[in-house]
């Protein structure tokens, strides 16, 4: 048996899937993909796989309730993915200008969610793809001096990710740091020389162009927040660390708040905090477009940790811009603050659509916590659930609705934003399965996980750079090419370029109003 | 703790290193990389990581003898790899025409190995790179309909792999099957439609061009055999399955022989066996060049399983071509046959240079076997060691000699051919460490493993396709592009093209002699 492991020795496969640790309980298999970032890998003392097995066992009790074995038969008539190759990935864009307030929650999404209104569905996917962009463009390579930054400058971001048709333009990149020690939060380069030792690229501000503005009925400013780490482990250690926000009783988890508000003069990218960067940019844009007499909205989006930051951002924006229509569309977000925090958000008119997947653990944090001694997850009602409170209206998805998805419990895959976007795209109502005329590319689901059923023959974790970015030079040596100068982060460029740009695109007369 | 696994959920890293399972024993850390091919991954019931841990523990006893802890300090003064970026990867080629017989073992490599003669060093690396090419170009993607084939046609192979300067030209691809069930031998497509259900691309025949022929003093025919699976696991189950070869007492391991000789009329690529394909091609080339009055040599190379096949191939070739100078340069090859087999090889004048790494387990197979009950490897002297016998002269390398290599026991990494080639390139003699003027690109070592010290900042397992071969089509959908027609394997083309080619390149008058 043991030799079977050795036996792969001389296989140099192109595809190295991450380890899948599997435990079977009650006849249903549960799979947890043990992700190893390079930091873990460089410390041979750690044994993440063991942890994965433990976790799988622990979760099986709780989660088998939500996945029934007999659903597997559905995968037998999965449509051939090749039949869709020559079909468009989206429907023609509707003009939603008459209905946009409702789509953004003015009526708390009454009668829009079940069944899901097709215009709303498209808008959710649109914002979700802005959040996905923060993952797709992020430099995770710890051997890169730009680890933790965006791989492209903001002018090129949407073009590189195939989002040019979104009708938005990125005006600002946002960087964040944290002054408290949060487990596995920061992606850090191993090199001595790095663009930043303290900060990570944390998202962007974008604004709708004239054509999109016309279609959606107002000038829309978007803030898209990147997630980094599932907030679950923070709750393990920091369940009680709520911190005050604002002047009243509102309190929020101190880890989220730290990322949102930390700054330090000694850093290159966080002399101002993420909060300050975003608020300054939003203020600039709001003033500019309101100054032109336009109706303006602010839509804040994010996945997981990014969804938590979106709420903090919405809270602060509402405090600063009275009368501005602010909505949050979050994916897989955990609870962030207490009841007073929620109530203040409601009072200020912030509308939050919270997209969740029934089988995803993270949106249930910190309502459930890991019980080390019992080796299982428990619902702790009456305690934390009453401290941390969810905000807004929930759109609840179910992985069982899609015939394209594996039904085994892949905790990582179920939490992935692409899985969310796939399920939104196929969602009709709470009782129906995946709609047959969904157009979004199913293949995207497997970008960074192994969620698609085998019949589709899509490799897992396929989203990867050729040779991890190494290229052969003139001498035949494999080298890491230097980044295009325009894609190298620079605090100076970050501070000034969008002003110069507005000068160019919108007329110099506005420059001095900013 | 458990949440730490979940925590990587929202990280969509580009780089997914394979799992590293680690056990610590006697203060020295042993790391076994658990490779998961896609077959394993699709069967969530398997738990390869567990196996990895077991194996690590089992091996620690045996192998700590060969790695001393205090060698780690050497990594502190590793030269900066960037300093070599603008230097050539090889020395100018020497004319070895006067010494080629000696380099190929006419004097059993006496006085050439310790210290290693620089001309011999270069020739070893040259043949090793032919063996490496069979890995680099192999399609391991089980979701590809061409899984198990070569990704390029033979005219393009060397160009694609940067081997155009080798001075050789591929004349024939070799395919193999096996009629007995060998564990994890065949790489097979999961698709219903596949280029071949039974056969794998197993290597190639090449011949030196006129310029190289002049430099090396004779026309050299090369057969390069791909390895697939470490033969270790075969010995677990098949230790006693020796099969006769030839007319005398010679016997060889029946799994190797099966791959070498199996054929079936019902297959597309193995209507003739690998043996027959190679022998026919070699015969054609020998006749052709001898017919032109040239001196001809046959050099057979291969790594691991490929090294075993090389010996079988040499045996058969010697039987068929008396007077032809035949040599074998093998890397990490296990024992193949009994004493009678070895003696016959010697009698027929076959010269074998067997390159091994002291810490590699495979060349010690089947002299050591895994003892399931004791959970450790044992040297079984007096039994199998006397049945299976090594052939030829050994060039023994040591991973401790290179400051570039990690000293922890990575069984997979130590067995990799690129690790071998790196150590050959740096080898001076049995007492000296890595030569400082070695030119070969150190980065290559990490293609498919994690052997380079962290100071070098080379990502592990970097040899990978962009997005695993998926590309965006006109509609924005991610699709697996169809192969270039010229790179699609075809039994017809395989049978005839090299004849047509010789007609073209060498003159039509020879066509009818073949």
UniProtKB/TrEMBL annotation, chains A, B:
A GO MF label: phospholipase A1 activity
Annotated InterPro entries: AB_hydrolase_fold (IPR029058), Fungal_lipase-type (IPR002921)
Keyword Hydrolase: yes
UniProt keyword list: Chloroplast, Hydrolase, Lipid degradation, Lipid metabolism, Plastid, Transit peptide
The Fungal lipase-type domain, residue ranges: 222-369
GO terms classed as biological process: lipid catabolic process
Presence of keyword Coiled coil: no
Localization terms from the record: Plastid, Chloroplast
Region of interest (Disordered), ranges: 1-23
A Gene Ontology term for the protein's cellular component: chloroplast
Similarity-based family: Belongs to the AB hydrolase superfamily. Lipase family.
Protein name: Alpha/beta-hydrolase superfamily protein
Organism: Forsythia ovata
Lineage, top ranks: Eukaryota, Viridiplantae, Streptophyta, Embryophyta, Tracheophyta
């Amino acid at each position: 048996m043991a030799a079977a492991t050795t036996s792969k020795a001389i296989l140099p496969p192109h595809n190295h899937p991450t380890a899948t640790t599997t435990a079977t309980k009650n006849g249903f298999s549960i799979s947890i993909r043990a992700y190893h970032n390079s930091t873990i890998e460089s410390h041979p003392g750690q044994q993440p796989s063991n942890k994965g097995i433990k976790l799988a066992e622990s979760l099986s009790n709780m989660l088998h309730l939500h996945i029934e074995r007999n659903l597997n038969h559905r995968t037998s008539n999965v449509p051939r993915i090749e039949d869709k190759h020559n079909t468009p990935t989206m429907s023609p864009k509707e003009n939603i200008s008459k209905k946009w307030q409702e789509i953004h929650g003015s009526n708390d999404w009454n009668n829009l969610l079940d069944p899901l209104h097709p215009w709303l569905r498209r808008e959710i996917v649109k914002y979700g793809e802005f959040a996905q962009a923060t993952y797709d463009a992020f430099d995770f390579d710890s051997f890169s001096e730009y680890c933790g930054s965006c791989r492209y400058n903001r002018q090129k971001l949407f073009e590189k990710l195939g989002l040019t048709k979104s009708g938005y333009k990125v005006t600002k990149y946002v960087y964040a740091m944290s002054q408290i020690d949060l487990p596995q939060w920061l992606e850090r380069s191993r090199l001595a020389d790095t663009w930043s030792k303290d900060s990570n690229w944390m998202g962007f501000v974008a604004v709708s162009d004239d054509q999109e503005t016309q279609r959606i009925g107002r000038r829309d400013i978007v803030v898209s927040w990147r997630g980094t780490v599932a907030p679950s482990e923070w709750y393990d250690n920091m369940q009680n660390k709520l911190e005050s926000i604002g002047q009243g009783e509102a309190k929020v988890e101190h880890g989220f708040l730290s990322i949102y508000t930390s700054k330090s003069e000694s850093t290159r990218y966080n002399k101002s905090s993420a909060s300050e960067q975003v608020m300054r940019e939003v203020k600039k844009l709001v003033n500019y477009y309101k100054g032109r007499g336009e109706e303006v909205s602010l839509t804040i989006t994010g996945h997981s940790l990014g969804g938590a930051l979106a709420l903090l951002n919405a809270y602060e924006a509402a405090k600063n811009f009275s009368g501005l229509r602010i909505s949050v569309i979050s994916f897989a977000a955990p609870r962030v603050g207490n009841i007073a925090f929620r109530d203040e958000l409601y009072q200020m008119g912030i509308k939050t659509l919270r997209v969740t997947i029934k089988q995803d653990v993270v949106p249930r944090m910190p309502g459930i916590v890991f019980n080390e001694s019992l080796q299982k997850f428990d619902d702790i009602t009456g305690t934390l659930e009453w401290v941390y409170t969810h905000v807004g209206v929930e759109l609840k998805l179910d992985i069982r609705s899609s015939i394209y998805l594996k039904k085994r419990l892949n905790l990582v895959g179920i939490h992935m934003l692409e899985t969310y976007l796939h399920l939104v795209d196929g969602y009709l109502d709470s009782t129906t399965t995946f709609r047959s005329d969904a157009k979004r590319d199913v293949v995207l689901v497997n970008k960074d996980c192994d969620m698609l059923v085998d019949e589709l023959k899509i490799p897992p974790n396929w989203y990867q750079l050729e040779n991890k970015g190494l290229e052969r030079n003139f001498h035949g040596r494999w080298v890491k090419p230097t980044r295009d100068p325009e894609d190298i982060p620079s605090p100076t460029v970050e501070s000034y370029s969008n002003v110069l740009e507005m000068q160019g695109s919108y007329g110099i007369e506005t420059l001095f109003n900013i």
